[in-house]
Structure formats: structure tokens, C-alpha cells
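Ticket 4471: requesting a sanity check on a complex prediction with iron/sulfur cluster. Repro inputs:
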Amino acid sequence: MSGRQAVLRIPDVKPELKELEIPREAVVSGDHPVILAMADGLASMGISVTLVHPFGEIEEIVAPLRGLMEADDEVSRKYAFLTEKVSNNKSIKVMGLSTLVAVEGWWGNFTAEILQDGKLATVKAPGLALAYRGNPKVPEAFSTDDVKGFSEFLGQFDFRKGGMKKVPNPVKRIAFVLDVEKRDEKWPSVTALRFGTYLKEFGSQVYILCRDFKVSVDDMEREYRMAREAGVMIFKYEDLPTIQKGGQGIRLTFRDASAVSREKPLEVTLEDLDAVVVQENILPAEEQVELLAQLRIPSEGGFVGPNNPQFTGRTAKKGVVVGGDTWYPEYPTDAMTTALSASQELFKWVGKGTYKIDVERVAEVDPSKCATCLTCYRICPHDSIRVERYGERNVYITAGAKEGPTWEAARVKVETCNGCGLCASECPAKAIQLVYYPDMEVYDFLEGNLR
Ligand code: SF4
Ligand code: SF4
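Returned C-alpha cells:
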């Protein structure tokens, strides 16, 4: 068998399609103002929405934006319009003073547990859109009165569009420090670059200090070039910069290893800074941690969805999308655009009313071999594995049944399995096979090619 044939082998398998009915419904929940955009976006595509929020009145959802709404006409206009539209939309059922506390089931068939006025209600939710506000925390290494986190600083200056117009030159010399505790987040690079370029229009001197500048975001290479052309200076530091109070402002000292060579790093001192802004950790509220863990949305040490700003609010769990700070912190009008993309993403799952799944291209567990080690459960990117009680091979014992063997073993949910094969390759007990490409065929192929 040649390598070419092996590549062609998988598409040759005839799919066995099963049609599932998916109600055109979704639950939108959270305390971030973009839940309005998500609810409106889904409703305008014909989805019945249950909007779950913790406030007394729908107008209070935009309360965190009030200062900015006064400063920026665009934010004000867009969010006021959305509030009114959602209030008057009959296909959006609004549940105020409510919190989503748990989610059971899987895509197409979620059950949302909602706490309202101390009482627990359950709502069927084929799809979920979530957007929470995060709590920013400046890393301890930079925790002084002279240093601000991105959210606080940008909030104070009403980000880059609003209040800035009224303050001609609010900062003369500013340094953004990225990657203090986390190196893999892209949103601080995006924010520093865009805000830095904007500040250059006011004649400010702008420095960005980072370990790695992340430009693998839509349009970022172009923005990076524009920022450099505008005069934003970017340094790469190795050890954390030190910060001191200087004569005219704040002094930052660090070693830039990229400017000359790693062996001879350049000692750099930035004097007389008006502001030092560091990348803070964005943490979820305590009461959201459990829900996020259930849904496999990362929250430890940060609150940034899949940490990939170019994707559209999709999470590792099919049928769940996120926006707001659960995705990553953005200017409110940008966050609105992201939230709308997330709604469109969710529409792909719940919008057609039916969905075809291929039950042939999935993984299957042999329960007699499974050691219940949970490796597959942990690595499945689609959250498609559960541990259940079995009767015999692939016969599952329903709740309450007394007869038959009752050992526990992993079970693959065919409704959500994407047939990626990760679980089959990682299972230490060799208990998982891909139905359409069993191990024996893989061995035959390898033997044939290694001869
Ligand atoms: S990885 Fe294998 S042995 Fe471990 S739980 Fe999954 S199927 Fe069972
Ligand atoms: S084949 Fe992929 S999607 Fe399916 S259960 Fe295994 S790891 Fe999950």
C-alpha cells in the first residue's frame, strides 16, 4: 500500500449519516454588555433566545459602559439601540436577576440550570452563548501605585476613541509591559499596538516591552508595520524590567537581548515616563469558575477563551460560544463585533433545525479493555467521552437497571465525536478504535511501508 493510497483511504469510507433534530433555540447568559449583541444577533437569525442576566432591569446590563457612552457617541448609539431592540423583541425571553449555574448534556441537547430569585429552573438549550466580565489583577511583581493594568488605564482614558478626543495630549511618555506572568496571550499585543498607534497621533512617545510580540492575529502584521512607521518602539526583554520613581516620572530599566545579541544585551533605561501599563491577569468571578470548568473554558490564571483572537468565539465544546472578557478584553464596539461573530458560529450548530452526524466516522471503546484511567476523557477536544456503566460490548446499562455486568468504562458520544483519533492514539490500554480505521489496518499499512 503506498502512502498516497493511505491518504485516500479515509474519504473512501462511506459515511453513515443520522439526522438529529435540533430546536432553533439558545440560551445567552452573562453579565457583559455584549450579551445584548449575542441575543439580538441570534434572534435576528430566527433563533428563540432565553437571555439570562443578573440585573434587575435590562438597561442595567450596559451600566458598566456609562462613562464611556458619554464619551464615545458610537458606543452610546450602538448600545442604547441594542438595549431597546432586545427589550422589544418578542422572540427573546428575558430572565433578570438570574444566573446560569450549571449545564448538563451536549450540543443540541443541553439543559441549563438557572438560579432566579433563589429558585432553580431548568431550560432546554441546544446552544449556549456566554459573555462575562473579568476581574483584572496586576501581577505582584509590578504591584505599585505607579503602575496600572490595561483595563484601568484604558478605562481612565476612555480607551482609544472616546475621552481621548477631549484630552489632546494625555500622556507624553508611556510604556506598555507585556508577558509579565503569561507569555502566550495575544490580546495584550493587540491592545498595546492599537492603543500605542492611536497615542502617536497625539505626539506621545510610546514604548512596548515584551518577551514575544504576537502578530498571528488577523491584520496584525499590517498594524505592526503601521505602528513601527508611526514611531512606536518595541523592545524584547529577558528578565522583568525594574521600576523606580525617577525625578520627572517613572524609570524603567531592562536588558534588551534582541537589539544587539543575546551574549551582549543592551542595557536600556526609559526615563520620565508618565505612565507604565502592564498586562494584568483577567480572572473570572469566583462563582463562574465551576461553570467554566464544566464547559472546559480555561479560567486558571486568566480568563481568555481559547486564547486565539482570530477565531470567532468558538470553544472546545460544540454548541458553546463565548464573547466579552470570556473571549478577551476589547473595546466595546469591537467586542460587539466579536459577539456577533460568536452568534453566527452558534447559528451554524442550531440554525438549521436539523443536523446530520456521521455515526460511522467515530471512535468506539471496548469496555472490557478500558482501565478507566480517564486519559481519553482529558484529551478529547470535543468533550465527547464520559465514563458509564456497561452491560456488554457497546451495550450501556440504563440508569436504575440491576442485571448484567456493571463495570465502568469510557463511552464515546457519537453525537459530538469528530473522529479525530486522539483518544485512540493515547489510550494506554488500546481500548479505543476508530470505527472506520481500526488498528489492524493501521498496522498493515505501517508494515507494508516499513518493509
Ligand atoms: S484512555 Fe483508554 S483505558 Fe483510559 S479511560 Fe479512555 S478508554 Fe479507558
Ligand atoms: S476521536 Fe477525537 S473527538 Fe472522538 S472521542 Fe476521540 S478524541 Fe474525542
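Notes from triage: Confidence is low (pLDDT under 50) at residues 1-11. Leaving this open until the requester confirms.
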